[in-house]
Amino acid sequence: xxxxxxxxxxxxLFGHPVxxxxxxxxxxxxxxxxxxxxxxxxxxxVTQTTDKNPGLGWSNGExxxxxxWYTMLVYVASIPGGMIADKILGQKKSVILGAILLVIGHxxxxxxxxxxxxxxxxxxxxGVGMLKPNISTMVGGLYKKGDIRRDKGFTIFYxxxxxxxxxxxxxxxxxxxVYGWHYGFGLAGICMxxxxxxxxxxxxxxxxxxDYLGKSxxxxxxxxxxxxxxxxxxxxxxxxxxxxxMVIVFFGAFEQAGGLxxxxxxxxxxxxxxxxxxxxxxxxxxxxxxxxxxxxxxxxYWATRRLKGKEASSLFKMLMGLxxxxxxxxxxxxxxxxxxxxxxxxxxxxxxxxxxxxxxxxSLSPVSLSFVTKLAPAKYxxxxxxxxxxxxxxxxxxxxxxxxxxxxxxxxxxxxxxxxFCILFGLLIFVFLKKLKALTHGAEDNERKIERT
Length: 453
Known about the structure:
Blueprint: E1 12-13, E2 16-17, H1 18-46, H2 60-76, H3 78-89, H4 91-109, H5 114-141, H6 149-179, H7 181-201, H8 219-224, H9 231-254, H10 260-267, E3 272-273, E4 276-277, H11 284-307, H12 314-342, H13 347-375, H14 381-409, H15 411-431, H16 433-438, H17 445-452
Antiparallel strand pairs: 1-2, 3-4
């Protein structure tokens, strides 16, 4: 059990602790700033210096290489961020520090100098590393052991993430492409400031959640930092680490959205709609739009499946999410085939790809966040969440390498290869599903018992 706090009686809103919505809006603004910057990052790098809205004039390969390193480091920084929270600051203070670093980072990016560009990226990497694993762990801390609402709470939290991502792709993307890239970067910083202010003023709803265990009033919490792990806890760590392999593969494919698929939308897709050209960055908002509109439906499907006694474990949801997401790349295969034969690729291929990617993401990403809080030992709660986000960072680096390879092998080969590999890897995990579930030692069984009462 990874809950690192013993929250007192909490006020509730729509059946969940009010603190969930404080975290919801904090993460919404953090993701607004991050995904807004991501929507224009590669486009800024590859836009020619002679354009009306000049960029840096890098080649696609150079831009995707930096994109891969940056997105990897953003999430790998979650490991030291989680360790600092577990051993020194606690999650709550770490979130505040991370938000401050992010405000500084996005603001520095608004300065039109190369030193400011790299300095801003450094602050953002450090800020996400401090904020991301700790705010997610705090969501788990809102719920007691065996609380059936935990997965649903993470789905609500995840919708908040994507409200920010949806709005940012449209707003920051438009400002960046039309008015100037650095105006877009600066807008992301202003919105992160909103998130910081909201989190600070919402502290009264987070009493007992995210505090440092070493200063807890409960002897049980202080002892948890000292005692060695039990065999059950070690087994659960093992299954978590093995599940992270799915996360690496998933995000290695999924994060083509900000790289190769972003460039494909810009260079190869017919974006004319009733005489108006749709900005390439706007396609980044499709994923978030589908999450907002389909999030509760996908969560409801899995809940109904569980009530019928069918397989609906976290591991099963994750492998199915990987397979569904991989299937979405077959639409990109069709898009490249159409471009090769007619010299034009329709927008609906991208829409269908993002739809499948989103359903896959809803089955894997919020579920895996909840899974970490169920299985991680209390004294390593944020550290394990940090490792989880680091694996998503490794996936981002893989995504960059795959995107770069398109210049050698072509988009058709890369998109098709991703689809085949993801589907086969998901099926391989299914073969070992029973053995992996045994290593959890019934971590999810309590939820099923509570659900039946």
